[in-house]
Design brief:
Helix content: 25-40%
CATH topology: Arc Repressor Mutant, subunit A
Number of helices: 6
Distance between the termini: 27 Å
Number of strands: 2
Number of domains: 1
Order of helices and strands: HHEHHEHH
Strand content: under 5%
CATH architecture: Orthogonal Bundle
CATH class: Mainly Alpha
Structural class: mainly alpha
């Protein structure tokens, strides 16, 4: 897939994080399908992905899905950010990589590390409501 980036090595303990209160396989499949559609230079938030995947309010579970992606899966993972317009991968050790990949696609971050969701946030054409900043 063009414009996608291979995931950096993620520690084994983080590869398959799951939430005990949520059965992730169906959500995981929907999230992966949505992430595959995000065009270069655009971003979506974890909460937005949860809503689009039919699980409003499940941003944390989307985070578990994203953390659990297998290495080598050819998805534009870097295009998923938090509702503040920031990357959430700094504590995993590859925030600079994510920001760099997004910057290479034309996403601009301010001095506080935020991108303008009003400019860069992506919605599929058939998304209900298409409300910003989920």
């Amino acid at each position: 897939m063009t414009g996608c980036s291979r995931l950096p090595a993620v520690p084994a303990r983080l590869r398959r994080m799951t939430s005990p209160e949520q059965d992730l396989p169906a959500l995981e499949a929907r999230v992966i399908a949505l992430v595959a559609q995000i065009p270069p230079g655009r971003v979506v938030t974890y909460g937005q992905l949860a809503t689009l995947a039919g699980q409003p309010g499940a941003a944390r579970q989307v985070g578990y899905v994203m953390n659990g992606l297998l290495e080598g899966l050819d998805l534009p993972w870097q295009r998923v950010i938090n509702a503040q317009g920031k990357v959430s991968t700094d504590k995993l050790g590859f925030g600079d990589i994510q920001r760099g990949l997004l910057a290479a696609e034309g996403v601009v971050f301010d001095a506080a590390g935020r991108c303008d969701l009003g400019q860069y946030q992506w919605w599929p054409d058939d998304a209900p409501g298409q409300e910003r900043l989920l």
